[in-house]
Each structure stands twice: as structure tokens, then as C-alpha cells.
UniProtKB/TrEMBL annotation:
<protein>
    <submittedName>
        <fullName>Iron-sulfur cluster assembly accessory protein</fullName>
    </submittedName>
</protein>
<dbReference type="InterPro" id="IPR000361">
    <property type="entry name" value="ATAP_core_dom"/>
</dbReference>
<dbReference type="InterPro" id="IPR017870">
    <property type="entry name" value="FeS_cluster_insertion_CS"/>
</dbReference>
<dbReference type="GO" id="GO:0051537">
    <property type="term" value="F:2 iron, 2 sulfur cluster binding"/>
</dbReference>
<dbReference type="InterPro" id="IPR035903">
    <property type="entry name" value="HesB-like_dom_sf"/>
</dbReference>
<dbReference type="GO" id="GO:0051539">
    <property type="term" value="F:4 iron, 4 sulfur cluster binding"/>
</dbReference>
<feature type="domain" description="Core">
    <location>
        <begin position="6"/>
        <end position="102"/>
    </location>
</feature>
<dbReference type="Pfam" id="PF01521">
    <property type="entry name" value="Fe-S_biosyn"/>
</dbReference>
<dbReference type="GO" id="GO:0016226">
    <property type="term" value="P:iron-sulfur cluster assembly"/>
</dbReference>
<dbReference type="GO" id="GO:0005506">
    <property type="term" value="F:iron ion binding"/>
</dbReference>
<dbReference type="InterPro" id="IPR016092">
    <property type="entry name" value="ATAP"/>
</dbReference>
Amino acid sequence: MNLPPKVTPRAYARLSEIGAHAQGKALRIAVEGGGCSGFQYDIRLDDPATDDLVLEGQGERVVVDSVSLPFLANAVIDFSEELIGARFVIENPNATSSCGCGTSFSI
């Protein structure tokens, strides 16, 4: 069964730290063609659209458009802080392979 993506508390906390809601923005997660593996993630602050799936927690919002939703079924959206940097990451069980940078994948 395909479930919508989940957002971790750590990801919502990071959105709160950067003031996304205060700016009237949401974190948009989209899947586009391209990248070295066939598909790539587009992750940015954006205005929600009327047909977006809206995931809410801790006063913050993450939105996914209807075209990207099947590619993100059962995925987990998280925030990671490592020595090399901090970024939103997606654990996507639909991806059969991904590139070394983690932003491109194939299904």
C-alpha cells in the first residue's frame, strides 16, 4: 500500500529554525526528470499550491505536488547535519539506485 511521505520531527524543527512558516512558505519536495540517475529532487521553500499534498507538524508545512507524489510514496523526509554540511534528505524506498550526492535517483 502506498502511503504519503512522512516528515521527521527533526525536519520540521529545521523549518522552524529557518522561519519558513513566519515567511508564509512551506518546504516543497518535488521530483523532476534529470540528474545523473534519471530523476532528481527539487527541494526549496515555496508557496503551497491548491492541489498540493500538505504535511503539517510543529507549525510548519511540507508540500508535495500531485505529479511527484507517486515517486515519494512511503518516503521519509529528514534533516541531516554532518561535518560536510547540513541538508534535507529523502529516504525513498522507491529508488532502485542513486548517485553519490544523493539528489539523483532511478526507479
